[in-house]
User: Which sequence fits this backbone?
């Protein structure tokens, strides 16, 4: 049975073609450290790390190479930003569609006197920005939100949010987990103060590497979450003030960075727009296939948007006549269709969408998925849901 991977929102597969070779070459031929060794091999790896920072600056239209910080993933990046920036008494605005990568740190910070308010979204996940101004308090310091919902794919109005934050003097933090490498992001034009990304989704790099890009004005306001050796100014026990060392303590994930370098090189050689259009065409084909056979959603209920305007290639459904966990299991075991079922680490989003606590079955498409695979997935889903086509 051929396996069909439709869980791209969790992690991309297959990875960009050059990623595995780049990681293997480093580990097998030159697995040295950086900022420690005074020899050519170490300098060569340091150059690759620097080039990766340059690539990320180009990708996100960001001017400061040394302000690109590597972490393990977008979750760690958001923890760095939220826990480093916020102080007792501060207030934050979030969308009601947030992932727990934002909500759990903020909930943890409540014990330290930080509060947050959710900007409401409608039943399709669209942000109701008109309601945001009334939620601002004198102590409101920042607005943090995801760019696209990992549950239903709805995009947030990033440019409008950047203008809103500028107007009201708020720090704008963006979670680009689902969109980096798929949708264009311009930190300058969108007035984003800090952007958190992960390397293993739309960028198609390995797991375990991510990071954030941060404006100069925010750097002194951010307390480092982790401290330790950096290989620089080793004569002092004080944390370096300069970037990126201020936020990069310890040995970095060099296999991950070099894999990300390879993935970004591949991305730069291909059209992001073409790949995005391909993913959205598959999304449209999937949605149309569901609607044409079951327009009332009696057997398969589409959650969120029914078209491809203002969304990424993530679709959630419910199967009213069969338990969703059983449906997802049958899709995998009987038909080889790999999806994700449950609450997707986003209970607030599911409450907004009306799918809490049951959750959904999530289908997400990547640049190498095909129309034929979507046809097989549709046939399988209808069969599992008990609907004859």
Assistant:
């Amino acid at each position: 049975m051929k396996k069909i991977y439709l869980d791209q929102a969790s992690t991309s597969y297959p990875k960009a073609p050059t990623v595995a070779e780049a990681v293997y070459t480093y580990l097998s031929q030159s697995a040295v450290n950086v900022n420690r060794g005074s020899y050519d091999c170490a300098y060569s790896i340091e150059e690759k790390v620097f080039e990766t920072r340059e690539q990320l600056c180009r990708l996100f239209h960001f001017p400061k190479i040394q302000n690109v910080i590597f972490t393990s993933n977008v979750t760690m990046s958001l923890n760095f930003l939220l826990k480093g920036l916020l102080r007792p008494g501060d207030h934050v605005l979030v969308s009601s569609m947030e992932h727990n990568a934002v909500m759990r740190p903020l909930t943890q910070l409540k014990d330290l006197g930080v509060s947050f308010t959710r900007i409401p979204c409608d039943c399709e996940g669209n942000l109701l920005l008109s309601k945001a101004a009334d939620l601002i308090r004198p102590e409101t310091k920042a607005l943090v939100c995801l760019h696209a919902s990992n549950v239903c794919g709805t995009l947030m109005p990033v440019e409008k949010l950047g203008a809103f934050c500028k107007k009201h003097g708020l720090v704008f933090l963006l979670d680009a987990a689902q969109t980096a490498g798929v949708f264009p992001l311009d930190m300058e034009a969108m007035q984003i103060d800090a952007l958190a990304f992960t390397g293993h989704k739309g960028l198609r790099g390995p797991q375990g590497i991510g990071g954030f890009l941060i404006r100069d004005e925010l750097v002194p306001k951010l307390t480092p979450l982790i401290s330790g050796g950096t290989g620089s100014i080793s004569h002092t026990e004080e944390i370096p003030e300069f970037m990126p060392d201020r936020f990069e303590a310890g040995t970095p994930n060099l296999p991950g960075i070099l894999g990300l370098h390879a993935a970004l090189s591949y991305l730069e050689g291909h059209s992001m727009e073409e790949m995005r259009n391909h993913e959205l065409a598959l999304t449209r084909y999937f949605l149309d296939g569901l609607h044409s056979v079951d327009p009332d959603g009696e057997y398969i209920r589409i959650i969120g948007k029914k078209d491809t305007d203002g969304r990424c290639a993530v679709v959630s459904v419910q199967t009213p006549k069969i338990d969703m966990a059983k449906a997802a299991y049958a899709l995998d075991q009987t038909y080889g269709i790999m999806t994700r079922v449950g609450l997707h680490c986003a209970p607030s989003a599911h409450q907004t969408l009306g799918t809490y606590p049951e959750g959904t079955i999530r289908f997400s498409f990547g640049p190498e998925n095909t129309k034929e695979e979507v046809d097989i997935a549709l046939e399988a889903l209808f069969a599992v849901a008990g609907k004859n086509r």
The chain has a mean pLDDT of 97. The radius of gyration is 22 Å. Residues 163 and 278 are 30 Å apart (CA to CA).
